[in-house]
Amino acid sequence: MAVSVTRSEHLRVDGLSVSFPDRRVFADLGFTVAPSQRLGLIGENGAGKSTLLRLIAGEFERGDAAASTRSNAAVSGRIARPHRTGLLAQELPFGPQERIDQVLEAALAEVRGIERELDDAAAALAGDDSGAASARYSAALDAAERADVWSVEARRDELLDGLGVGSLGLDRRVSELSGGQRSRFALAALLLSAPEALLLDEPTNHLDDAAATFLEGRLRAWPGPVVFASHDREFLDRVATGLLDLDPGRTGALALAARGRGGEGVSRSEMLAASGGTVFGGSFSEFLTVKADERARWQRRFDDEQEEMQRLRGEVAGGARRVAHGRAATDNDKFIRHFKGEGVDQAVSRRVRSAESRLAALEGEQVPKPPAPIAFAGIPSGSHALDDAAGLLLQLSDVAVDGRLALDALQVAPLTRLLVTGANGAGKSTLLSVLAGTRQVDRGSVHRRRALRVQLLEQDVRFADPDASPRALYERVLGERRAEQVPLGGLGLIAPRDESRPIGALSVGQQRRLALALVIARPPHVFLLDEPTNHLSLALATDLEAALGTYPGAVVIASHDRWLRRRWSGEELELAAGRPVGERVPQ
């Protein structure tokens, strides 16, 4: 590995390339994020967003276990970053027996060190007023001001309350927390440490509206550079001052635009590295429009060239009759050929050679076919019908799960479309597990249709055999016959190159795609989705939402996704912590 790292107030990446033996992640990537700027990373699952954040944070420079698992990566380039750069990773580094106060204090280790240095420098200055002692104290004071060491406890309480975990208690152990609570404590710990630069991997996963709004305010006011990877479309719109698209298909479209129009039509995009990524200076909503226009231009150019090549091949193959504007020779043509046969043949030959030359040139420089994005191909057909299509599938009456859920009534019909909302702790995931039959209620009744098939896409995906390939697991779970009827590659969720890789080598988003594929390959009568857009690419999240609208069974979704909720057209059930009855709102 050959990565040059220097210190800077800015966060700058130049000529960064990463590849593994079986694939290239990105090449010759370059961008700069100035203090107070916030760059959002977007792209398909597996495009390298988490890898890029780890690289900037310096994980590949360390000899720890996490870095050693990636030791076969070929990395080159230059990185400049502030001295104190903090990373929020998707995989949290907490031991199950650690207490929350220990986690938070560990995050403050560097801040405590700065505080001690300030005390020591002040003591040294009191006994020595030399220039060296004065310079030491000045540097220590500057570092303490940047780390805001005097307001640590107040900031801690404010962060915990703002992220919705202030009431959980600092003496609890990590093993006692839910996945969402652990994520919010990790985010609080990182912000509390007050690094000069922030690197965030999916920071809004598990955040409700209030916590997401709180985080937005904190990041907009952050004085240093911020880089974050997110699939939260609303969060991107509200926080990012720029976007870095790691989708190689888009850089190809921009390169085409520049080649064909001298750069005209690229709009607010800036081509920084055609083989790496593309920085866009507008909002996410504007980005969606620009990207759609770029792809449409690329597709039109490809179609036009294919049509022209087909015409030229026809001319070459058809000889004189094709070259003569596609019409059969007339009697007058035959009369002229009788007297001028050799000259006509030469003219035909010249036209054929000209067509061959133009065809060869076009074939050598033709625009590549726009790559088909990994898209949700739609829920495959299958047996959904029950013996009696009428009536209710599930019915809950006066159900309660102590400390987690209380609900008067809920009915799920064959074509129900229900969105469950509410703050963290309101019981959304608990309700889905009750509907799935994986959690028993403490009180009340749950009535389920006979032969009903219910499946749940959970928030946190865990596979028992990380060494298995997606294709092997798919065939094992579905059976050989069903896997042949609905091949994994036909779902558009796992790229062909990833079907044979170990599951443990896939990104979090790619693993969730696999979990989704295992559910939709044998569609259930009731499809339950817990935060379905978490970890999924922006394009896939949009395609999934559209496909669920025509799903041939019942759909129940629990989500914090504000983008999804603003566009929801079905029923809604709002749950609230401490309120015994959910409020179901018809749309």
From TrEMBL:
Annotated ABC transporter domain ranges read 11-273, 384-585
Quick check: keyword ATP-binding in the entry? Answer: yes
MF terms in GO: ATP binding; ATP hydrolysis activity
SMART domains to which the protein is assigned, alphabetical:
AAA (SM00382)
Keyword Transmembrane attached:
no
Name the source's superkingdom.
Bacteria
One Pfam family cited in the UniProt record for this chain: ABC_tran
**Which PROSITE patterns does the record match to this protein?**
ABC_TRANSPORTER_1, ABC_TRANSPORTER_2
UniProt keyword annotations, A-Z: ATP-binding, Nucleotide-binding, Repeat
Classification via PANTHER family: ATP-BINDING CASSETTE SUB-FAMILY F MEMBER 1 (PTHR19211:SF14), ATP-BINDING TRANSPORT PROTEIN-RELATED (PTHR19211)
Instruction: Return the protein name.
Output: Antibiotic ABC transporter ATP-binding protein
State the species of origin: Agromyces badenianii
